[in-house]
Amino acid sequence: xxxxxxxxxxxxxxxxxxxxxxxxxxxxxxxxxxxxxxxxxxxxxxxxxxxxxxxxxxxxxxxxxxxxxxxxxxxxxxxxxxxxxxxxxxxxxxxxxxxxxxxxxxxxxxxxxxxxxxxxxxxxxxxxxxxxxxxxxxxxxxxxxxxxxxxxxxxxxxxxxxxxxxxxxxxxxxxxxxxxxxxxxxxxxxxxxxxxxxxxxxxxxxxxxxxxxxxxxxxxxxxxxxxxxxxxxxxxxxxxxxxxxxxxxxxxxxxxxxxxxxxxxxxxxxxxxxxxxxxxxxxxxxxxxxxxxxxxxxxxxxxxxxxxxxxxxxxxxxxxxxxxxxxxxxxxxxxxxxxxxxxxxxxxxxxxxxxxxxxxxxxxxxxxxxxxxxxxxxxxxxxxxxxxxxxxxxxxxxxxxxxxxxxxxxxxxxxxxxxxxxxxxxxxxxxxxxxxxxxxxxxxxxxxxxxxxxxxxxxxxxxxxxxxxxxxxxxxxxxxxxxxxxxxxxxxxxxxxxxxxxxxxxxxxxxxxxxxxxxxxxxxxxxxxxxxxxxxxxxxxxxxxxxxxxxxxxxxxxxxxxxxxxxxxxxxxxxxxxxxxxxxxxxxxxxxxxxxxxxxxxxxxxxxxxxxxxxxxxxxxxxxxxxxxxxxxxxxxxxxxxxxxxxxxxxxxxxxxxxxxxxxxxxxxxxxxxxxxxxxxxxxxxxxxxxxxxxxxxxxxxxxxxxxxxxxxxxxxxxxxxxxxxxxxxxxxxxxxxxxxxxxxxxxxxxxxxxxxxxxxxxxxxxxxxxxxxxxxxxxxxxxxxxxxxxxxxxxxxxxxxxxxxxxxxxxxxxxxxxxxxxxxxxxxxxxxxxxxxxxxxxxxxxxxxxxxxxxxxxxxxxxxxxxxxxxxxxxxxxxxxxxxxxxxxxxxxxxxxxxxxxxxxxxxxxxxxxxxxxxxxxxxxxxxx
Length: 930
Fold this sequence. Notes:
The chain contains 24 helices and 44 strands. It has a six-stranded mixed beta sheet with strand order 2-7-6-5-3-4. It has a five-stranded mixed beta sheet with strand order 36-38-43-40-41, with no helix packed on it.
């Protein structure tokens, strides 16, 4: 494999293109967009100064060398007249109303306090040619949105700002710097352009301004339906429980619901696939060809407008009414043109796989229970943009066709009713309800039926994993050498911030103990996340556009190109896997992690994921696609049982993973925290082995999410109960703090001795993991054959990372106390001081910080403290007239024995002298997993 050169400017260019292509134009009243050269422009909204590059938590914690906000990008334009007075008005207000960070993990506010509009601001709006209002929202891990002002809904202050600005300025543009859709019911009566610009990573502002100025014509389309109120979503009554969510809407998720049932069609404001352009296109269908496994639509797309641009064409298929309930239409395929000049045309071929519009029969109504089928009848083919206005372009006939017969798997064991469709004589369709089919066989029966075969133990034969890689022996002969303890050790990953891997990453796995190293097993590393590489020590990485932006682009080629750059960046940092893409379905708009995910549609989600994986695989690295499965809520995410029909799982929630496996050669999967139909995902044999490996043919490794719970079927879940996780085919448990000691209790050896799990279970996991490791750069590094990666343009990142480069490591004494003498550290505003601390154990520590300052006692000297890149607290001290003083602060509990502490100075002149960390109490190490 030959690696291309990693060029930072090329990386930035691709990210910028993705931001622009993902922007979705909902309205363009008064032709407010594009902005013309020479126009006067005024920017309203505090988010102009606090741009959200991504959401929160592990999916967004990327240390970047720069972030271009929308205002930054506008300020760089010399062809517009930007109102500087308004900028200064906001700066003065923000100085008195600073950005609120929140206290700790999952505590950052969804939005920031907005500045109330003044009469002077309104006068500026009247005097400008184009007024831009920026609305911002965030959310993330462990933090769902809420249907309240400042979260899903706009605040009264924001609504007043929009109302007064749009009435004062004829050409008003409202930008939504958000992770996913928010309430739009207020927009009906607003005269303005509306543009979803999502969270665009570090090149976000540049990509957005390319669209605002007309350098790029908007070509993004909604990947999620926008309704007139959140209660209209069919999942709304069944979302938000802290114990169990019944997925009663079944297969009727998003547009599958709104386009099927006539009574709810008027609840849609902007349908799936909706998006306007500055130009116009004609689409001429040249033919529909039905092949053995697919339907191919050939069409010519012509730009009939005045601007150059791209067009997205989406094919929808309506299946015949048969014995099975079906959505009215499903998306079956899509394509996107290259940029077309006015008058230019091109031919698109959109291939729709029959598996992408087939139905799964979990009830037997079709006569083919537990099978993917296409029922007899006429299939109507539609072509659009959005699903609501898609035009009928033809049809084809099929006989009853069984695509694949399967064994029932992962069906619910609790009775409940699910949504179904009832057709009327006039052609309308009403909602009805039916009993959901339940699981027939017990998990124990399936475990016995599909039990792995044990490899006879031979003892050490001297084989190293390199011998398997070179074909000198086979993987089973290698695994036969491993003792029970070595098999259990191999089952454990180590992290976070393990000293055996790239500093600051999430975990490493493989040869993490001395015994495993003697067998020549490499150590591979993985890092968060979907929006870029997270390295908690402070190392710089590239922040990417979020999942909503990427999905809205409908551009699989661009996604593949962008993620080839991510792959090269992983290689640069000697990381073997990124923990992403996130491909859970957007079941409900309030899921806090929707910014990581792609769409309400499983086909679009799967295709975009497969594209990203293909890009990564070009660099011989991969993505751990997550969170497998039905992880559609962040609140109490490790407790809430997702109770879902087998059909809805296979057609909606598992389908993106299946596409990723079959079309993207996915070889790494992360299970989710939650139980699925009563069994926690990490310990779910039907999910991790029966469906994933035996039915889909997955070849690769499965890892748990960090500190996941496991349970025996019908039993309670516990994070120390790892034996059922190993038994399920979850190959690696993430994670322990020290693989030699593993301070967290582990019941694998105990359950192995009792016969509750078998050596064969552990050997199977070892084979899966080792075969994966052989394919990684980690193996090449160990064998001394890793290809050298060339880079261009990253010199500034290294220079900017001076605090990390000068970082020192300090160790606890026998009493658990860490003493740090600090030399020559005087704060400069915006600069940081970083130390690496290795404690004897995890817990809560009190920090004593000794400092001085030449400033007098009226000076205010704030310093913000981060733990592993998570904001912990801000201490504000006063000047000391050069006298040493000490401040004491109890910090939040650690999540590992190694912690990177970053001290970020808010002003000049604070000199650090001494630091001491003292253990004050012992806490449950699982209280707040990160």
